[in-house]
Specification:
alpha/beta; about 15% strand; SDR_fam; about 50% helix; Rossmann fold
């Protein structure tokens, strides 16, 4: 046997490998049938999470998607907590909820600052209660070619788009584990599944959110915390002004309400992955299966990715979404 493997005894290696392959095959077949069944099952018959009275905290809750997420959960009788760095945006979300007859707690929080996140988290626990559902939704974009990116913009994008996920998860996950109940929703992006022109900072942070989320998911599963739900949401461009001026070729921009509706539905169903639109899932494997030059030709000539991103009109301003 090759030294350094988990099983160095040849017989043990072969026996355990064959056994694990058999178990994995049987379970995979079951999971495939389960997926097909749930896909065909009407929504009204699906078993969904009851969030009545649960505390839902949404970062970037002042933005278009965050506002709709808050409203959707409020309609399900959850307690809504909004975090955002923009007071006007927070007020707009709170007003939208009040117009519909719902209340929410709001906090001005700079999630790029670790200590401010921990302070705000402590305040939420004291004033509202433990957080049951954490939606890491906040994000910013600069959208400039790499050599035009200011160093400060790169640091800010990383601080908001990925590092903040560590601070919020560290603040609220221990209570979820202690209570044996909770859910973490990570809002990533399709740009976190394939690199995008003029998004070397944004796309890289979204790749990082996918890696963070999947790694945390594996830790929770391995340590037996099956009761903690994990949902990764990867939407296409969203029409919130974040990518102002960009005109995609194949798919129109998604509307904020649609993304929020799908996010909440996936959370209620305890779905692990939510890629929007769903058709994008069939394109992603091509990146690994086709030659790199072919993928570039598809990006350049069929998707017109660089050309679309070159139309961006908000350059020089980082916008939250």
């Amino acid at each position: 046997m090759v030294p350094g493997l988990i099983y160095e005894n040849p017989l043990e290696y072969i026996y355990t490998l064959l056994l694990d392959i058999l178990v994995c095959t049987v379970k995979s077949f079951y999971f495939l049938l389960e997926t097909i069944f749930l896909t065909l099952l009407p929504d009204r018959l699906r078993n969904k999470k009851d969030v009545t009275g649960q505390v839902v905290l949404i970062t970037g809750g002042g933005g278009g998607v965050g506002r709709h997420i808050a409203l959707n959960f409020a309609k399900l009788n959850a307690k809504i907590v909004i975090w955002d760095v923009n007071r006007e945006a927070i007020n707009a979300t709170c007003d939208a909820l009040k117009t519909e007859g719902y209340e929410c707690a709001s906090y001005i929080v700079d999630i790029s600052d670790r200590e401010k996140v921990y302070e705000a988290a402590k305040k939420v626990k004291e004033e509202i209660g433990k957080v049951d559902i954490l939606v890491n939704n906040a994000g910013i974009v600069t959208c400039r070619p790499f050599l035009d990116l200011p160093d400060k913009a790169i640091e800010s994008t990383y601080a908001v788009n990925i590092l903040s996920h560590y601070w919020t998860a560290k603040a609220f996950l221990p209570d979820m584990i202690a209570d044996k109940r909770g859910h973490i929703v990570t809002v990533s992006s399709v740009t976190g599944l394939m690199g995008t022109y003029a998004c070397t900072d944004y796309s890289a942070t979204k790749f990082a959110t996918v890696g963070f989320h999947e790694s945390l998911y594996s830790e929770l599963k391995y340590h037996g915390h099956e009761y903690i739900g994990m949902t990764l949401v990867c939407p296409y461009y969203i029409n919130t002004g974040m990518f102002s001026g960009v005109k995609p070729r194949l798919f129109p921009m998604l509307e904020a309400k649609y993304v929020a509706d799908q996010l909440v539905e996936s959370t209620l169903k305890n779905e692990v992955n939510c890629t929007l639109p769903g058709s994008v899932r069939f394109l992603l494997p091509l990146k690994c299966l086709l030659p790199a030059k072919t993928c570039w030709e598809m990006m350049l000539r069929i998707m017109k990715g660089p050309q679309s991103m070159s139309m961006y009109r908000g350059r020089g301003k980082a916008k939250s979404g």
